[in-house]
């Protein structure tokens, strides 16, 4: 995929506008290949902890090597990473996992600036197969609300974003663009259940002057995320035969005042939020996702286990968020005679996503300029904080980081997950322009 000497020579004498026009035309020419690559990646069912999560890393390493990147592939030291006191958590078992870093070395790194693109390759399970219009891992084109979309698990979250970043680099090489600074693309594992891959990336010392995470943002710019902590509640009761239920204590009934208290806590924590997240009805959700109780229909249950997710406010520490929930549960127990003597136990497990924020307006402005150049006449982009945890919070302390990518999060994790064809094309064009502006030309 190397450019011809004539193309390189022509660009060497081209104006900024001519370079942009050539790059955009090359990005459009990459579109069909980008759709094909996305279909290939969707066909790999790379759920967290599965062999396919390992496979997709090696596939992308081969793809990027073929595109002329210098590729580094290494096995993650899971024992050392999970023992690290700052490890962000993991919700699935992994026996092996791999890191991949692919770099197009800049031709004048002292003059240009480096850019890192970080995108996760793991996906969530498909759920109820009957809710899908076809095989979740066989990408297909549909028309939805008048727009052509690509449907399949991972199209939106976030294989389309990774494909756009690769197609953008291919476009530059096709027309002979010589970036001054390094361009690095890092496919990572384990984002959905904590951030293993990006944590390993940071621990390996992979940094740049700036970073873009092509998560689905509906082509808006996201410089901040709230956090998300996974919790477990063990609610006690006292078992007895259901015919004598008044002589026992139902753990289900004991859970109700605690659940009510959690609802009030959510309202309190969202009463006054940061302006970046005011667009959301609930910026920092507190949700109970699973409830399990009892082992026999005619027995009063003596234990209920509930698991949920606590949103962490921008600039709030996870420790402070944990303390708020623990205090809420303790106060709810203190108000109830049985729970005062047998309090609910709070446990923290799984993914522990801290919030993250980038205050670098230069990077935000650069992404917005690239988008305007790629999509003339496009609506004004919004700049906002997202209500979900992501790898941004691991990357932003190391270098300015924003999220920008194709797809809408309302389609992520859903049956018939999809990304609009036009969004994939637009993101490819915008990322290509961003690479040129940020890294600079030789």
Describe this structure in words.
The two termini are 19 Å apart. It contains 13 helices and 16 strands. By secondary structure, the protein is α/β, with parallel strands linked by helices. It has helices at 5-12, 16-29, 31-42, 51-66, 78-83, 155-174, 196-203, 251-269, 318-334, 337-341, 361-374, 392-395, 421-439; strands at residues 70-75, 98-104, 115-120, 140-144, 147-151, 183-188, 210-213, 221-225, 227-236, 286-293, 303-312, 345-353, 356-357, 383-386, 401-403, 418-420. It folds into 2 domains: 5-225 and 356-439, Aminopeptidase (3-Layer(aba) Sandwich), CATH 3.40.630; 227-353, Alpha-Beta Plaits, CATH 3.30.70.
Show the helix and strand layout:
Layout lengths: L4 H8 L3 H14 L1 H12 L8 H16 L3 E6 L2 H6 L14 E7 L10 E6 L19 E5 L2 E5 L3 H20 L8 E6 L7 H8 L6 E4 L7 E5 L1 E10 L14 H19 L16 E8 L9 E10 L5 H17 L2 H5 L3 E9 L2 E2 L3 H14 L8 E4 L5 H4 L5 E3 L14 E3 H19 L3
Parallel strand pairs: 3-6, 3-7, 7-15, 8-14
Antiparallel strand pairs: 1-2, 2-6, 4-5, 5-16, 8-13, 9-11, 9-12, 10-11
Helix pairs in contact: 2-6, 2-13, 3-6, 6-13, 8-9, 11-13
In short:
By secondary structure, the protein is α/β, with parallel strands linked by helices.
State the main characteristics:
four-stranded antiparallel sheet, six-stranded mixed sheet, 2 domains, Alpha-Beta Plaits, Aminopeptidase, 21% strand, 442 residues, alpha/beta
Terminal Cα separation, in Å?
A: 19 Å
Low-confidence stretches: none
The amount of beta strand, in percent, is 15-25%
CATH topology of the largest domain: Aminopeptidase
Structural class: alpha/beta
- The average pLDDT score comes to 95
CATH class of the largest domain: Alpha Beta
**Residue share in helix:** 25-40%
SS summary, helix count: 13
Query: How many strand units?
Result: 16
In CATH, the architecture of the largest domain is 3-Layer(aba) Sandwich
Order of helices and strands: HHHHEHEEEEHEHEEEHEEHHEEHEHEEH
Total domain count: 2
């Amino acid at each position: 995929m190397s450019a011809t000497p004539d193309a390189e020579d022509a660009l060497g004498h081209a104006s900024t506008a001519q370079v942009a026009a050539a790059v955009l035309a090359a990005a459009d020419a990459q579109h069909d290949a980008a759709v094909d690559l996305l279909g290939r990646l969707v066909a790999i069912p790379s759920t967290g902890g599965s062999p396919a999560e390992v496979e997709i890393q090696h596939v992308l390493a081969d793809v990027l090597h073929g595109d002329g990147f210098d590729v580094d592939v290494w096995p993650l030291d899971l024992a050392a990473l999970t023992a690290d006191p700052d490890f962000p958590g993991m919700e699935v078992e992994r026996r092996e996992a791999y890191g991949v870093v692919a770099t197009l070395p800049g031709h004048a790194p002292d003059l240009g600036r480096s850019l890192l693109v970080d995108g996760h390759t793991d996906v969530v399970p498909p759920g109820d197969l009957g809710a899908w219009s076809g095989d979740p891992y066989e990408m297909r084109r549909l028309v939805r609300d008048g727009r052509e979309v690509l449907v399949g698990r991972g199209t939106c979250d976030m294989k389309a974003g990774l494909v756009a970043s690769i197609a953008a680099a291919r476009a530059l090489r096709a027309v002979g663009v010589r970036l001054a600074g390094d361009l690095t693309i890092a496919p990572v594992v384990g984002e959905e259940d904590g951030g293993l891959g990006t944590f390993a990336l940071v621990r390996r010392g992979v940094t740049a002057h700036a970073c873009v995470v092509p998560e689905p943002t509906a082509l808006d710019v996201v410089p901040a995320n709230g956090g998300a902590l996974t919790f477990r509640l063990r609610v006690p009761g006292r078992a007895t035969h259901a015919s004598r239920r008044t002589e026992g204590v139902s753990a289900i009934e004991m859970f109700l005042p605690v659940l009510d208290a959690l609802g009030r806590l959510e309202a309190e924590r969202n009463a006054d939020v940061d302006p970046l997240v005011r667009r959301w009805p609930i910026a920092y959700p507190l949700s109970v996702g699973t409830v399990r109780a009892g082992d026999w229909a005619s027995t009063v249950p003596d234990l209920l286990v509930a698991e949920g997710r606590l949103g962490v406010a921008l600039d709030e520490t996870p420790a402070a968020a944990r303390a708020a929930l623990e205090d809420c549960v303790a106060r709810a127990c203190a108000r109830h005679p049985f729970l005062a003597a047998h309090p609910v136990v709070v446990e923290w497990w799984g993914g522990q996503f801290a919030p993250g924020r980038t205050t670098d307006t230069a990077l935000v402005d650069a992404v917005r300029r690239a988008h305007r150049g790629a999509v003339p006449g496009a609506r004004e982009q919004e700049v906002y904080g997202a209500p979900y945890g992501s790898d941004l919070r691991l990357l932003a302390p190391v270098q300015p980081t924003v999220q920008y990518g194709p797809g809408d999060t309302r389609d992520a994790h859903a049956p018939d997950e999809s990304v609009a064809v036009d969004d994939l094309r637009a993101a490819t064009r915008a990322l290509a322009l961003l690479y040129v502006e940020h890294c600079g030309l030789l």
